[in-house]
Design brief:
The chain is about 30% helix and about 30% strand. The chain is an alpha/beta fold. It has a five-stranded parallel β-sheet with strand order 2-1-3-4-5, with helices on both faces. The chain has a five-stranded antiparallel β-sheet with strand order 10-9-8-12-11. It has a three-stranded antiparallel β-sheet with strand order 13-14-15, with no helix packed on it. The radius of gyration is 31 Å and the shape is elongated. The two termini are about 50 Å apart.
Length: about 250
């Protein structure tokens, strides 16, 4: 897939030069070469732009091109909340410090060096293929115990047991006793992590060590009964799907 590229420069000569460099690069697809911010903005509304090659100043233009009062290239980029990769181009080295406030991919000085341009495109490619940083959060649920709300991570739970008006939530460190029905929490928990093996028991699948016809043993040694109406579901959803042994 090629990198959709938009050029923004108020000088016709540089639009032509940049267009040729983009068209000759096998990884780039030139969408348009614009002379004004308004033209660039309109095109960005119509097309998915991956890379904006933008002149910083957008100063005095030739007749029929961008007006001298037009917003600068840097000012335009500042308005883009979730914009494309940016390569700034300018004839003035002193602009470099100002443009880095918007974290561009690169900054090129006119006249452009082709080898330097190719290195900039490699930076663009690397940024585009990098996966966005994400914060991994373990699944959890929140229950009210007495007057406080307790957050419990899924992986902490060995099993849950219905007991009169309470639900025992058993972890290796502690047992919680919120006033909660087992059917209520079963409906709200993330599908597939917990198994209903008895009308009174929900078990974390990774906590199971041994399964027999009538019960299962957890990693902490506790034995949990298997209800008749849940045995088929346990076999189908847990044993058969994960059994790697040869059947005789």
């Amino acid at each position: 897939m090629k990198i959709n590229t938009l050029i923004l420069d108020d000088e016709a000569t540089w639009r032509l030069t940049l267009s040729k460099m983009v068209e000759l690069h096998p990884a780039l697809q030139l969408v348009a070469a614009c002379s004004s911010v308004m033209e660039a903005y309109a095109l960005m509304m119509e097309h998915e732009i991956d890379l904006l090659i933008c002149d910083i100043e957008l100063g005095e233009a030739s007749p029929g091109e961008a007006s001298p009062g037009d917003i600068s290239g840097l000012g335009f980029v500042r308005t883009l909340q979730r914009g494309p990769q940016i390569i700034f181009v300018t004839a003035h080295r002193h602009y470099a410090f100002d443009c880095y406030e918007v974290s561009p991919t690169d900054f090129l000085l006119k006249p452009l060096d082709r080898e330097r341009f190719l290195r900039s495109i490699e930076k663009v490619k690397q940024r585009l293929v990098q996966a966005p940083e994400t914060v991994a959060i373990d699944p959890y649920f929140v229950v009210k115990e007495n007057t406080q709300f307790v957050q419990i991570a899924y992986h902490e739970v060995l099993y849950m047991k219905a007991q009169e008006h309470f639900l025992l939530i058993v972890t290796p460190e502690k047992t919680y006793m919120p006033t909660l029905a087992i059917t209520s929490i079963e409906q709200k928990l993330k599908s597939g992590i917990f198994l209903r093996v008895h009308r009174s028991y929900l078990v974390h699948r990774s906590a199971i060590r041994v399964i027999t016809k009538n019960d299962l043993t957890l990693v902490n040694g506790e034995v949990i009964p298997i209800g008749d109406q849940y045995r088929t579901q346990l076999n189908r959803k847990h044993i058969e799907l994960n059994n790697v042994g040869k059947q005789y």
